[in-house]
Amino acid sequence: MTTHHRGRDPGAEVAGLLLAAGGGRRLGGRPKALLTHRGRPLVEHAVAVLRAGGCTRVHVVLGARADEVRSRASLPGCALVDNPEWEQGMGTSLRAGLRSLAGTGARAALVSLVDQPGIGAEAVARVLGAYDSPDALASAAYDGVRGHPVLFGSAHWAGIAATATGDRGARAYLREHAERLTLVECGDVAQAYDVDTEADLAHLE
Length: 205
Prior knowledge:
By secondary structure, the protein is an alpha/beta fold. The protein has helices at 10-13, 42-52, 66-72, 90-101, 121-128, 157-163, 171-176; strands at 14-20, 36-37, 40-41, 58-62, 79-82, 108-113, 137-142, 145-153, 182-185. The strands form 2 sheets. A 7-stranded mixed sheet has the order 5-4-1-6-8-7-9, sandwiched between helices. Strands 2-3 form a two-stranded antiparallel sheet. Strand 4, helix 3 (66-72) and strand 5 (79-82) form a beta-alpha-beta unit. Helix 2 packs across helix 5 and helix 4 (90-101) packs antiparallel against helix 6. The radius of gyration is 16 Å and the shape is globular. Pfam families: NTP_transf_3 (PF12804).
């Protein structure tokens, strides 16, 4: 007989972790969180996607012009995490975000990036659906290539924090644990482009 976790809400156990600290160096120093998308700061859109995908708790890591992001963006109910080391790369934001989840009761973190507006709620929900325990390790894939969002069960947080350096984030950890990683194909529902350059701004609405 197969047993099911009736009524269990993975969204209550998996926290959304949005990395939104980047300074937009190749965008003339415009923080990505403050780029305009559909008339509002991009960070608002990214939070809404996590919530629509099933994350009830959302932590947002801020860095470049954090005070301005706080004043211009409407982020009710989010835990806002300052990363004073943001200029050292995305790895510092990932570490700060995972630290902020300690003691919250979250059993996993679903990590997304603020500059990927082509990844919507359906992709978030698919990766969230891969959560089954604090040992879970899953990632969206696009035509078989690993991308975001990525789901890290809490059993992996210490190992990820120990290896997250520069802009590589969790890449080294995921490479070392590739045999445990569940790839969740999302290429049919999302586009994994980054908004990094002036030309990429055409993706914003």
